[in-house]
Write a structure and sequence with these properties.
Oligomer: single chain
Number of strands: 14
Number of domains: 2
CATH class of the largest domain: Alpha Beta
Strand content: 15-25%
Helix content: 25-40%
Distance between the termini: 44 Å
């Protein structure tokens, strides 16, 4: 028998006519992520397989656990010998290595030409196990070991170890989006959820030196690095927002600072998204969490762009967002004490029901189109791959 990693698709099987596109993308994502760890990646409509050397199995499973489109990861075995006597021998050999008292044999026969049906195979294998391993009992409801046998056209698969995976769609199958990535808790979680739905992300970060520090920028790049483990890689567009922010601060009422600032960020994000063929903007806004995230504020801020804006955590409460941030590994970085440009000039009493007419009026006091042009012209692009060394971020992690 050959040890092999088996991948189950889950939600992808609902794609029918488009299934092959999704599977090809998933295989490409796996191949790219695993690199030289795997010796072969191949698939059919029912399963995907990863072949590798024994010593690479554990690191491969770790990497597969962060790839969207995988429902379950299975450590199994395959054998081309399809004789019933060999199935019995293989099943016994594998189960003799384990410690358990109850078990069940589950057989799936995708090869309907195989002369013995699934129920009969399960009965024969179960009887063979009971005869050769003393003290065991069959439990079809809650067994300690559920031993699976799959009868395929050219091989038999055996497995009992299954690891739940992330599910979702393979990254890139639904196009590209631009994530408004800050150093907070919410936006990396929103990015993760967008990636889960098959969206390949780029990110935009607004810095405001000297009001924001290099450490704040590195914090955001560290968050991008964590997301890159799920996204394969992330291009980060760093926008110097200082001139725009100071212009707003100098010329506009303090209660409208955040509203106008967010409108400027949306304008810039829409232009960057268009230039980079991103279909949507993604952000971490959660309804009612802060003044700029009331429904009235969202409507007023969103008015400056035509591109769709997706808010994956819009209906999550803060505790739900924190729990997911902890699960995906961004929380400890997000709570590091480095402020971004959305927090350094927050007024004591920001407007929660902004007037669109006032926004138009206040924005006439600055030549924002020129400032936006300069900010985009001087953007810094940082490409982060999921294999990149984290050494550059060690000062803040």
């Amino acid at each position: 028998m050959q040890k092999i990693i088996i991948i189950k698709y889950g939600e992808l099987t609902t794609k029918k006519d488009n299934l092959n596109f999704f599977l090809k993308t998933l295989a490409q994502n796996i191949t790219k992520t695993l690199g030289t760890l795997a010796t072969n990646v191949y698939f059919d409509t029912g399963r995907m397989f990863v072949e590798a050397k024994e010593e690479n199995i554990s690191p491969i499973i770790e990497k597969l656990s962060k790839i969207f489109g995988i429902h379950e990861i299975i450590l199994g075995y395959k054998d081309a010998d399809m004789e019933m006597s060999q199935i019995k021998a293989n099943s016994l050999a594998l189960l003799q290595e384990l410690t358990f008292t109850t078990f069940r044999i589950t057989t799936k026969r995708s090869n309907k030409k195989y002369p013995i049906n699934s129920m009969e195979i399960s009965r024969e294998i179960g009887a063979h196990i009971l005869k050769n391993i003393p003290g065991l009992k069959v439990d079809v409801h809650e067994p300690e070991i559920n031993f699976n046998i799959e009868i395929r056209y050219n091989e038999i698969l055996y497995y009992y170890e299954t690891i739940p995976a992330l599910g979702g769609y393979p990254v890139g199958t639904l196009g590209k989006g631009l994530l408004m990535l800050s150093g907070g808790i919410d936006s990396p979680v929103a990015g993760f959820l967008a990636i889960k739905r098959g969206i390949k992300l780029e990110a935009i970060y607004f810095e405001s030196p000297p009001h924001t520090s290099e450490a704040a920028k590195n914090k955001v790049l560290a968050l991008a690095k964590i997301l890159a483990a799920y996204n394969a890689e992330i291009k980060v567009h760093v926008i110097n927002f200082t001139q725009i922010q100071e212009g707003i601060l100098k010329n506009m009422p303090r209660d409208y600072l955040i509203t106008i600032m967010r409108r400027m960020m949306y304008r810039i994000s829409a232009i960057i998204a268009h230039k980079n063929k991103c279909h949507i903007i993604v952000n971490g806004e959660s309804i009612g969490q802060v003044a700029s995230q009331t429904l009235t504020s969202m409507k007023c801020i969103n008015e400056v762009v035509k591109i769709p804006v997706i808010r994956p955590v819009a209906c999550f409460d803060k505790l739900e967002i924190i729990a997911l941030a902890q699960k995906i590994g961004t929380y400890e970085t997000s709570i590091l004490p480095y402020e971004d440009c959305c927090t350094i000039f927050v007024p004591k009493h920001p407007v929660i029901n902004p007037s669109l007419e006032k926004c138009y009026l206040y924005e006439q006091s600055v030549d924002y189109e020129k400032m936006i042009y300069e900010a985009i012209k001087n953007e810094e692009i940082i490409q982060i791959k999921n294999t990149e060394d984290m050494e550059k971020f060690k000062g803040i992690l």
